[in-house]
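Before relying on records like the one below, remember that each one covers exactly one chain. Contacts with other chains, cofactors or solvent are not represented anywhere in the record.
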Amino acid sequence: MNLWRRPLAMLGLALLLIAGAAASARQLPVSAAGPWVVFTPPTSSLPMSGNLLLNADFEAGAAAWDPYGAGYQVDSSISRSGSRSLKLVNAVASQTHGASQAIFLNQSAVKPIYFSGWSRAHGVTGAADSDYSIYLDLWYTDGTPLWGQTLNFEVGDHDWQFREGFIAPARPIAAIYVYCLLRNTHEGIAWFDDVAVHEINADLVSFDGATVALSQPTSPPFGGASLALASGDGLSLTLAADGGAVTGLALGAAAIHDPDRGHASGFFIRDVAAASDYLHVAGALQKTGNTVTHAAALNALGLSFAANYTAAADRLAIHAVVSDTTRSERAVTLYFALPVLTADWTWGADIRASQQATQEAELANLGWYSGVGATGYASRYPWASLSGLAGGLALAVPLDSPRVTRLAYNSATHQFYAAFDLGLSPATKTPGQASVDLLFYRFEPTWGFRAAAQGYYDRFPAAFARRAPPEREGIWVAFSDLAAIPDIEDFGIAFHETGDLRHVSFDDAAGIYTFRYITEPWSHWLPINDPAVNAGNYSQVMAYLHQQYLDGDARAEATLSSGAFDADGRYRYTPIVAPWCQGIAGCAVFTVNPDPDITDPTYRVNKANLEWNPTARHTYTTTPGLDGEYVDSFLATAETLDFRSAHFAAADIPLAFATADKRVGIPEVFATTEFARWITADVHQNLSRLTMANFILVDLPWGADLFDVMGRESNWLPGGVFQPEDDAGLNYYRTLAYQRPYGLLMNTDFNYLTHDLVERYFQICLFYGIYPSMFSHDAATDPYWENPTLYERDRPLFQRYIPLIRRLNAAGWQPVTLATLARPDVYIERFGTWPDLFWTLRNTLATPAEFEVRLEAAALGLPSAPMAADALLAGVHYSLSPPAALRVLTVTLAAQASEILYLPAAPLSTTVAITRSGNHVGLRWPHTASNAAYEVWRSAWPYFTPDDGDSIRIGEAPAPAAGEATYSDATGGPGDPAVNYFYLVRGINAAGRWSSVSNRVGEFDFAIVPGQ
């Protein structure tokens, strides 16, 4: 049993449909090209068992119901039917009251569940959620759970309300635990009566966040000629000319389509606001060359549809348009499904997680943003992958076409599908219309999601262009004046976010990029400096804002023109106090729409041209050393909807709609993306500068194609406990950034972030090739980089780790590792290609790990020669097994540690010799022809490695024409007991790649004291 609220996660859980959203199941008449029903919402008229609950009307008092939390009462004075009901009383919101009953089913085959009940409320506080609900936890017969299937009731005061829901379980159910709850955020009184749970004797499935009834036509509702399209690499699609169903899908010679699911393939649509059936668009298709055109009318829904399917060398692409014919606002979801059989296929969740495609009813990797679209969730990645013996198939959307999108595979219906939540309005730039773009492509299946990722990069190279030279990359620092930091080059600072252009000259001299803080596009932080204004009073705040405008404040004018509206037509703002906004009477933070196309006849300045205008651009003439623009809080308030209809005409991205009431609006992330695309195009193309964004790639991919440097602020030490971000989040940054730099700023109480914890932070970041840095405990005051005690304490860590992270990024992260480990608790990533080849390792265990790394020699291009890998942190060598298809090495990794394995392009003779020549230390070694020069490294510690923080690169020796290479250290101090140095040499080939390191040599002096 688990009664904690659980957000929808990666796996497709069985989901339910709440009463009031269900329409009657029905079959529409169909013709060859007329619309037909794919799914229909279930109703209580389905055949089902009797009520499985005992004493469901509480007429037998407390019989069969166990207390939960502080228990319950049986009320004999209030009831919906009969003479009794269940009563829960919370005197304070922190209390928990409830009743529970267990139902033991032990199903031998899957049967869906119907559940329902009534509740009445008096003075119930908080917001409607699962803490005031009829709440079901299910256990499957295989021991796995399905938590938190709920019927939530309204808060406040209300008479008896009815709720019903349906559950399509993934596997047979062993037991159901039923709760009537009032807890956590709710005080007040709630009554429950006539609760019911039934087994359904019909087929239901979970599909895209809802439980639906299958609608299987008695004969195919599509037909006509077969229209075939094929990509240049062997992905083929066949469509029915009458109806548009998918009648064929193949990867090369391997057919992968399910011929029994044709009626549920192709495009279908649902009017979400009207809770309609899922209706296939049908219509007529025609092929010309490598393009199929598709036109359809859905008169029953008041919609029309058009699409183009195009075959290209490396993909099949679709552009589709949905149009409203009723001249009203609409909330619809458009689907496109491929009927894919997946007996042996694997679903890729991300580069580290995958599972058999038959294990769950529905598989999707969905982000935490909620409240927008049909389900309140959207896909984290712009592609999804299935792979099996027949090959690999990816379904994807372009990054320059943001939509509220879900990419998923449903094993019950055999649909690999995309869902697009679209808001239609006559007030938009293209009245009543919304378009979507979709593509699918094949990939080599062995590497699953990783190969699909590489396939996506290859198909959209411009979206992942590297504009910042990798050798100049490094960490990100916010605002602080860096001129006061001695020997600043030790810290590897590359990107300086600042609002003070006086920093530019120092940054230029230090080789640091300066990014001007141009804006936080979603906001206006209005300090209220009139003590008579109550920041919580809407009328007073708006009067204050308007007065600011009358006084000539352009920011106030931009807020009046671009301010987002809530559902009541009021400007969206929140009263707040923050370190960076300290008005006398507090602050009002307004949500604004930064779309550059917004126009208002009264307020001529909008948010976009307030921030980016000829004056801002002219700075590059007066301050030519400025390197680019910084956009803050890119995804903050991403899911907030702007309901201001006057803004709809500015939007180039289609509208979406609210999950709760289906009202159409503009998601803030879409407006911010439009602003970012506008400004970055100018900065890149016309100014030849760079752009940077904060709080980006956080569970949504939009904007990943726009910025050259990306990152976010984070806190891995909440409450003084070290809690690194999980692998799914960190590998998300790496995957969406691809080979561009991504950085973290630690915002925490640095009194608790010890030197040892900083090293753990750096080691974790090193594994992903992410640049670690620090900011402030409150993202404003007492910054790390203005506290010498802190940065001097950690200087050796920056000296050791940042050059290594830079080296990894210079080689370039590769999603396909071409290396495998036998254990899932140790992670591996690859950077570079032969002969500049690195792997990073991360041991997630609290104990040391010894394991084999198996390298795919031919795919990596490794020579057939004896080889060894250098562990750059530990300073040890690991020999590879003899030449074969797999080259194997055995590695030992400390608990919670990371490591870099470097495979040198050429060995270096380990016969460095050391001699003394007067006050000089002389080194000599045999020259290896593959080396163009040699680095000489020195340390006071005998067991050092290059770049480890204890060593310095003291010079470089040229390659001799023949014979031995030599180097002389004039500062070695031979004969001085106070100066003892140790040396090693590393070769560099013509491409700037390292060899393995030499042996270590050193000189050691000690004083002879008479009598000792």
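The chain is about 10% helix and 40% strand.
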